[in-house]
Amino acid sequence: MVKKSSNKSNSSNIRTRIKSSIKNFFVKATGPIRDSKVWKFLRRTILRSPFKGYFVNAFKELKYVEWPNRRKAWSLTITVILFSTLFAILTTGLDYGFEKIAKQLFLK
After folding, report:
1. What residues contact residue 39 under an 8 Å CB cut-off, 6+ apart?
2. Residue 5 pLDDT greater than 60, yes or no
3. What CA–CA distance (Å, rounded) separates 1 from 7?
4. CB atoms within 10 A of CB 19
């Protein structure tokens, strides 16, 4: 039983070291960007604006989205294309009909 707890602490120690290494890499890689005047301007204006809460909440909400599989996505895509085509045909037909009626009423 002692070995299991040491394995857990050992694996958590490895995870902590990996996370720390990744964090250090990104801090070094993004250092020049974070020190630039453009980034400071963006932080002052956009990131502290009232819209910040909207974007933060929108990205949090994406965690709860259930994305469809490939088959369902194709099915939904075909449904949208068919509906759009039928609606375009209906709108074109109504436009053509109203044009004919208007020409008969006003051009006689």
Report:
1. 33
2. no
3. 10
4. 10
Structure tokens at 75: 């099915």
d(CA 98, CA 84): 21
Helix (H, G, I), strand (E, B) or coil at 46: coil
pLDDT for 7: 65
Global pTM reads 0.42
Higher pLDDT, 36 or 86: 86
**Which sequence spans correspond to the domains of the chain?**
66-108
- pLDDT tens track for 66-84: 989 999 999 999 999 999 9
Sign for the pseudo-dihedral over CA of 79, 85, 91, 94: negative
Q: Could you say which DSSP state residue 66 is in?
A: -
39: burial class by Cβ within 10 Å (0-12, 13-18, 19+)?
A: middle
Phi-psi region of 62 (alpha: psi -120 to 50; beta: other; left: phi over 0): alpha
